[in-house]
Amino acid sequence: RDFCSCLGFVLNDRWTVVVSVSVMAFVLGGGVGFGRSVGGPAKSQFVGARVSAGKVHGLTARWNMADVLIVNAPSGGHAFIGYHLADQLVAKGHEVSIYNAGEEEKATKKNPCASYGDLTEKGVSVAYGDPTSEEVGADITKAFGKKFSVIIENFSKSAEEISPMVKHATETGVAQFLYVSSCGIYKKSDEVPLQVGDPVNEKAGQVAVEKLLESSGLNYSSFRPIYIVGPKAAKSDYLDYFFHRIVRKRPVLLPGSGELPVESAYGLF
Fold it and tell me: What 3-state DSSP class applies to 2?
């Protein structure tokens, strides 16, 4: 769907999206993703290739307008994803709401939450609360006064944390549930790039989340992003260090042997 296209645009210039009414699977740069339809799981085997919008291997993308709820993290790379995703979706005509984890006073002291005013001016609704609460469904209804056709869960790191939101999505008949996981889910490997099907660390909380979604009956997709950097990202110091040294032609200190490949997804807007 359209929000998947936007997620690809937000996170990387190299993306592939496979979409139909009930199937969505995608790969974004160094991140990988998969999903399920009513008929069972759908896994993408594409890696970092650009394709024309609308059709991929015979599947037709339908760009329907949707009521989208983004459950956003209060800080870090995930919060950054949610901000730019909301910006892209509202620009395409979708109704977008953000349910942000944490307290408003604390979260808005730094980006991207400090810039939510830019989004509200464009029609995005924002509310703060606890996505892990058993009362989250009632809280969302009270805050926004409507049901959502798409939920993008961009906060939870364990099955326990996401369970209330999955319950809410199931009870309200959400058409598509998108979970933003992490490439940290994979076991260490010297083989790159990572792909769907590569071994994962079964102890990772996100593995339990994906298993819960698989058993939930929801039409879901899971995306596992890599390091996120870009405009309004709160955690950019570790990357800025390298550029500051390079432009001043000073030696750049690398961890370990310096042979470890690391890829970052740069957020576009």
Answer: helix
Check pLDDT > 70 for residue 238.
Answer: no
Task: Supply the pLDDT for residue 81.
Answer: 87
**H-helix or E-strand containing 59?**
strand 59-60
> If you compute the radius of gyration of the chain from its CA atoms, what whole number of angstroms results?
18
Compute the distance between CA of residue 109 and CA of residue 105 in angstroms, rounded to an integer: 7
- Of 111, 115, 82, 104, the closest CA to residue 7 belongs to 82
Are the beta carbons of 149 and 175 closer than 8 angstroms? Answer: yes
- Is pLDDT of 8 > 50? no
Cα–Cα dist 254/246, whole Å: 13
Average pLDDT, the chain: 75
Q: Exposure string (b/e) for 6-41, b if CB count within 10 Å is 16 or more?
A: bbbbbbbeebbbbbbbebbbbbbbbbbbbbbbeeee
Residue 201: Cβ within 10 Å count: 13
Q: Cα(first)–Cα(last) distance of the chain, in Å?
A: 19
Name the pLDDT band for 36 (thresholds 50, 70, 90): very low
Query: 68-87 burial, b for 16+ CB within 10 Å, e for fewer?
Result: bbbbbbbbebbbbbbbbbbb
Does 46 have pLDDT greater than 70? Answer: no
CA distance 74 to 167: 22
| Mean pLDDT in residue range 93-106 | 94
User: Which residues pair with residue 264 across a beta bridge?
Assistant: 227
Q: Reduced to 3 DSSP states, what percent helix, strand and coil does the chain have, rounded to the nearest 5?
A: 30, 25, 45
